Amino acid sequence: MSGTRDIVITQTILDAKNINAWFGSVHAIRDISLPVEKNTVTAMIGPSGCGKSTFLRCLNRLHEEVAGARVEGQVLLSGEDIYGPGTDPVAIRRKIGMVFQKPNPFPSMSIFNNVAVGLRLAGMGNKALLAETVEKSLKQAALWNEVKDKLKAPGTSLSGGQQQRLCVARALAVNPPVLLMDEPTSALDPISTAKIEELLIELKKEVTVVIVTHNMQQAARISDRTAFFLLGELIEYDDTSRLFTNPRDKRTEDYITGRFG
Amino acid sequence: MERAIDLEIQKLKERILLMGGYVEKAIEEATQALIDREPERFEKVHEYETIINRSHIEVDEACLRLLARQSPLAADLRLIVAVIKINTDLERMGDQAVNISHNGKRYLERPPLKPLIDLPRMSQEVRVMVRAALDAFVKRDSVMAADVLQRDDSVDALKHHIFQELIAYMGKDPTTIEQALNLILIARNLERLGDHATNIAEDVIFAVTGKDVRHGAHNPSRRVAKPSGKAKT
Q: Using the beta-carbon criterion (under 8 Å), do B77 and A259 form an inter-chain contact?
């Protein structure tokens, strides 16, 4: 495998091993292995169609939800293969949460219920505990102060940036060790983007974040490690500061300096 | 593919080359005025320095604009960081040329102490270093830049020789002290110029390869032994 080189990973929380993925006959991800360090932000960059989002969706078994799609390889979450026999994909997605490009709060639900729904589905019936966890999640998502007086208002009444933080709170409510984010700020203005970025830097103390971004400056600002994908392959994976100042692969250099893509 | 930043970088390189050209001229004029004993020519050095100073500010502004507007990365980023540093070295080289002219003026107020042999050699060597460092910069040639680092040793050796010779003069005849000191200061100015050229070569190596070779990094045998350290003034 290309990529990992002399990068030092001390504590791997999520370990993708020899992942191959297909959409029908299209081989979209080609033998990618990528260990993710605990309590870090790992960014995945690359031109459109390079496979970074597909790879992200392999990390919590979302890829297989697409008709005709399949995955081979292993993804170990704290040593356990999420593709192992008998593993429940829904349980996996509770441990490996996901925030999408466009904020997608449940339209019929209040702010409170948007965050509480996952907890209720997981069997939490105690109202006091529920309220406490919702508050904690909204605080973690840096949204509490803005919504604490209108928890019953619809989630969709919030601004785009607030809605995205609501989605982060919803994902955090079930206390996942890993949070995947697929271009979470691409639909947001710079102020909302900055809030999400600050949030990520704060969040990584408790949660490991893997983020797909088209914005290289964003990757440079917030991530500890960066992986560069091209045509379904992992080209380079390194400490972010090194990858953006002195990439080793000519293709990485060409992409980040805007020579293609 | 031609990128917007390519044109800007090309302009920056041209400015740096032009500035380097004036630095070379300033060093040459300062030393030649001393050798030919024509103090009025020191004025020219001041004119060159004024041009260099103006360029210093313009290059910094251009770099700041590029950083703000293009958010350069990888080789582009290293190049702009190197230009910012090379710019500073070139400006200080202009100052050193002026220092030579000040010390030279004082020296020319009295009869010559001795024929000048090693000082012109030093000056020649330093100019070759500046030119080679900037050629290496434009050609993105780290091997050529590494050669400049080696050349600095001969400049240091010449300075050492000049110091020894002048100390002997002063020891034998105290009335030569003032003139000998003027020449020592000029040798010191030239040595500093060599250090600045070395800095530029190191920045070129960084821009091209991403390797930081300063302070003996990547080649401990070379730079550690040098007692005078890096050029600062």
A: no
